[in-house]
């Protein structure tokens, strides 16, 4: 019996060795996500993480099981991160999302997620939408796509930025049940501290890594002017407390000083947007160590077929973008890059077009650092609610193997990333290769 047990343990050990996936990438120039200066090295990946980085040759085992890739002197860098994405809402028109079967929406979103990965994005912070099912499919290898830090339904007051109901559905009547957007967990309407607390806990129960709250007016929403402040301090505070009890944080959609200041007073740890901010409010963000997730919103015409009312709000919001970025730079704010692509198939198909817009305010190194190491710091704020164990956004020993190899140097020519089909030679996420044109 004892011999049989020993043999059984040996078989398990041998099987584990055989299952180990090892990849050695030789002869690459490395941008580590943090430092502007690159360096030449070889990189060993064991299973899903970076095991060794060395300028000297890295020995491999003699079994022949190691996949060896010649990097040919190309630039190796961390996978890109979008800190404000809507995986379910990016590529379909709003009316389609509000009227179509959720099965169709999932399939369209899965195709978009694969395109996002093939353009170099290995992680996204999803800030609103019924994404839990798609995330599970990606994590289990059923679909291809980036890692997803999900918020679940964004939480909105009645008439707020997340209220998609039609006027003929008002006044609300509990006997009629939830609206379609609420039933599919795209949005959660809540009007009171207790109701906000319940909706927050429901998203955390489903696996939310952070909570998204609508704290001010928006462009694409039907009822709320851009200047309005949404929710009260007790209502936002109830979400913050519920999130903190789960070891994570609340981020809010807000543009104006009043909406942002109210959110900070309640303990909100991240502001998304903020285009209409003033200097006093930026100082308040700095004093409270608040992360600022800014988007490169500049006028491109009425590409989303917005109503005249929404187009006017959009132009007002655009007018503050340059000032917002200037203030963020002046006070050395912690800035995250996020695209916030919504309801636009063309923009969703070319995600790096949005990244290139950041050249208006930053140099190539600052942009790449923001879209890798800095965005990873924001994702790390989810703490133990992060759905993935390990460090991302950097090339260093022990970090997860989310890796791109580029034909050319995006630190010198960022436009390379907008030609992903030709210039992204290798795409690896979690140690798994999704594209390899090097061998």
In short:
With 439 residues, the chain is an alpha/beta fold.
Structural description of this entry:
This protein has helices spanning 2-19, 94-99, 102-118, 132-139, 180-183, 193-206, 233-245, 257-266, 279-287, 308-318, 321-330, 345-349, 352-356, 364-379, 420-423; strands at residues 22-30, 39-46, 49-54, 67-70, 75-78, 80-85, 121-126, 147-150, 154-156, 187-189, 211-214, 250-254, 270-273, 291-294, 335-337, 403-406, 424-429, 432-436. It has 439 residues and is an alpha/beta fold. It folds into two domains: 8-79 and 393-436, Urease, subunit C, domain 1, CATH 2.30.40; 80-385, Metal-dependent hydrolases (TIM Barrel, Alpha-Beta Barrel). The strands form four sheets. Strands 1, 2, 3, 4, 5, 16, 17 and 18 form an eight-stranded mixed beta sheet that branches. Helix 9 (279-287) links the parallel strand 13 and strand 14 (291-294). The longest helix is centred in the first third of the chain and has 18 residues, at 2-19. The protein is globular. Mean pLDDT is 93; it is low at 1-18.
